């Protein structure tokens, strides 16, 4: 059986606790994600998908429950350790690409690798290889403004994979694209996951895309249920 890359148990999260505006978005969410697996996370807007992804990716902290990444229990981990694990083991893709506008496509892939201690030469070679995998070698020297929406999002996917993470977390990665471009980006994403052997948790409103993944989980009233 494949290695468990992400284990979540009993996550709870409440915003504005003890106030009239209190909202409990997670009420004991559990999840097991294995290497090579692509799981769809489906829920209405405001149901807590982004919160779950942020906690899973160590960008936020739950009120209760545990998160293990690659067998490492992150409960009580220092900010330094959380940052190190996040840089090494987790890649993020968002609905909007968030590429740095003053840097080229290749430079946007090089920078996260440099921050992770990779040499300039190795980072450029790794970035060029990723761009080639998604058919963007001829766009390496282009800045984001010179790229189409689909090209920008493909670069964003490559950036998420630049440090060879264990886990890819994607929050509506095709939500800002037209249907044809959305399918193209999703196909690239699925192929890269297959070729690299990482695991992916992808939040989406697109039920057709969700059905193409290995499993579907629905976030209902703060609990994850098989979809």
Automatic annotation (TrEMBL):
Residues 6-227 form the ABC transporter domain. GO terms for molecular function: ATP binding. Keywords: ATP-binding, Nucleotide-binding, Transport. This is ABC transporter ATP-binding protein. InterPro entries: AAA+_ATPase, ABC_transporter-like_ATP-bd, ABC_transporter-like_CS, ABC_transpr_LolD-like, MacB-like_ATP-bd, P-loop_NTPase. The keyword rRNA-binding does not apply. The keyword Electron transport does not apply. Belongs to the ABC transporter superfamily. It comes from Tritonibacter scottomollicae. PROSITE patterns: ABC_TRANSPORTER_1, ABC_TRANSPORTER_2. PANTHER family: IMPORT ATP-BINDING PROTEIN, LIPOPROTEIN-RELEASING SYSTEM ATP-BINDING PROTEIN LOLD.
């Amino acid at each position: 059986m494949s290695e468990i890359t992400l284990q979540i148990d009993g996550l709870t999260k409440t915003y504005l606790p003890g106030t009239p505006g209190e909202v409990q978005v997670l009420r004991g969410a559990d999840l097991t994600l294995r290497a090579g697996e692509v799981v769809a996370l489906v829920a209405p807007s405001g149901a807590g998908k982004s919160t779950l992804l942020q906690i899973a990716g160590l960008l936020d902290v739950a009120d209760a429950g545990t998160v293990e990444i690659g067998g490492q229990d992150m409960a009580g981990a220092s900010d330094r350790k959380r940052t190190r694990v996040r840089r090494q083991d987790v890649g993020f893709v968002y609905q909007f690409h968030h590429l740095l506008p003053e840097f080229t496509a290749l430079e946007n892939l090089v920078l996260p690798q440099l921050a992770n201690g990779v040499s300039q030469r190795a980072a450029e070679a790794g970035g060029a290889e990723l761009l080639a995998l998604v058919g963007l070698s001829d766009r390496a020297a282009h800045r984001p403004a010179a790229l189409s929406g689909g090209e920008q999002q493909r670069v964003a996917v490559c950036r998420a994979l630049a440090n060879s993470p264990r886990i890819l977390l994607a929050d509506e990665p095709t939500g800002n694209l037209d249907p044809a471009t959305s399918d193209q980006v999703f196909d690239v994403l699925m192929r890269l996951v297959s070729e690299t052997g990482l695991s992916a948790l992808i939040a989406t409103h697109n039920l057709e895309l969700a059905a193409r993944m290995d499993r579907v989980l629905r976030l209902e009233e703060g609990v994850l249920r098989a979809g």
